[in-house]
Amino acid sequence: MYVLAAVFNLNHPAHTVDWSFVHLSVANVIIIGLMVIVFVLALLLPFPGAAARRAARDGGGS
Amino acid sequence: MSRLGDLLRADGDTKPWKGRYAPYDLVKELAIAVGVIASLAVLLAVLFSSPDDKPSTIAQWSHELPADFATTAAKELAETSPTAEYGPPYNHSSGSVQHLLLLHPQRWLGVSHPIHTADDYVIKPLETIPDDPALQAALAQYNGAPEKQKKAWSEAYAKPLEQYSEAIEEKKTPPATVTVNQSAGTVTVKVSGVGPVPTMMTSLQGLAQSGGLEGGLVTSRQFFQTDYTKPLLFIADGGLLSERAEAQHLLGKQWGLMNETGSFPGQPWLWLYALWYQVEPMKSSPNADIQVLLIMGLLSLAFISIPFIPGINRLPRRIPIYKLIWREHYRSQI
Amino acid sequence: MSGIAPPPPAGPMPSKSWTVKVREKGVEALPPDRLLPDGQPTYVASWIYVFGVAGIASLIVIIASGSILALKGPAWWHFTGVGHFLNSIHLWSVELFFFVMVVHLWGKFWMAAWRGGRGRVWVTGAITFLVAIPAALTGYVSQQNFDAQWISTQAKDAMNSVGVGSFFNLTNFGQMYSFHILLLPIAVVALVVAHVLLVRRHGVVPPFELERRAEFAAAGAGAKGQR
Lengths: 62, 334, 227
Known about the structure:
The structure holds three protein chains of three kinds. Chain A is an alpha+beta fold.
């Protein structure tokens, strides 16, 4: 097995997040958390091009 | 518009857009997206790499866990192993055959990948060992005996080994009939009524430890092979794979099907599939797989049909996240 | 002198040519400026809209990295640093693919993007997600390492329980590899193409009418309230 040295070595048994009968690996919890954060940010952050859209609405667009 | 049409479509007021269009460069957007995603993938690869835990081999198994190997091999010969008792698609047993109400798809699809454990895992590999008169005599004695005698010999040999495994697992005193030399990788079973089986098993252990069993099981039908079913089922009948899996949080009760080896992210999108295995009655049912797959099949159909499910298809209207998404549009209308 | 004959004059009778029929249907459904428009409705003004194209981009990176892995054969990545690096890119682009696909799905659900005759857009998208799962599974069992040994010997029980194990044998590396590098990528790409063409055909779903405006319009027109 040839492993190119990674900056962070993840080749050790995972830590888990345990709650009642739920046992999730930390890595999976991070991914799920990031998905929620990215979704919320996508809803909240302003999207570029507002001026062009305003111009289009005010009579410039096709 | 019919009521049924209304109910199914739930979008009576969505008219085609007759308003303004602003310039939007789709091709440039795709190019930027490919650049961003490719950069992210490369960055993640540089930061974290990917896992590659070496596969377990039969040679390793027979060296590291000689008693476990011997027990499994004995059970394959006695046809009492999980694979021997599995059922379709490997054989006509019923140990692992699942059904749900009137549905017996496992049985209906039949034995499509026949495995006869005694022959495939013990007899045929032993027959490839040349220049061993004692082994050849043992094989001749075994093959020439009636079925009942074969069963009696192999079960008499397997029983003390199973007792040994149980004792080790429960941290009790193992039976004196089994002696294990861990460093030499040998297992000796001292019971009567076992006929030629000890000679056969000792030779099989030697063959396994030499690495001869891996290739033998894969290429048993033809020169070129890519089907690893036989060696995989053999090694899975033993305890080595599950021992490694438990250490890596890959067991079912550890929600293992969502996980990857090491601390890498796995398959978080399988959360709902994994969840059903943890709840009753699936959790303790011998038919858990077909039950969970049926539930997930129905939920998948529902997922595909969301636009047509009354109630669900009106949820986005009721919980107005859309007001955030289209806030610029709504503001412009005031 | 080009020597190329001019196109035949268009006659008044409908053509029996299959080629003409296919071309005309295609152009009718998706004229060039609808297939590749250079503008979008002014309501396309949120970052949530980029997750679809991010999914396509992830798929491109998956296929590119996967193609190099396939070029060198399934054992290569175990023995060279470059091979392992490409395997890492392939793994992380798969994680990114599912990540952006799920965020895209959430956004499309809360927009009720199936409205206005766009039911098939949702259906093709949902089926793409579901087909991507066995595409990933066949990849995991093709790794030829411990993870592949464990996943194949465990998941085989699920496949066998529903009778699928007879013709989808997770422990048969040759079969799984073929599904993974050919059959399932073709299925995913075909579904994504259908999905995107449907989006181009119907346009991006317009916003919900605001309650206030719907009631106002209804009151003004004397029509029964729609919702």
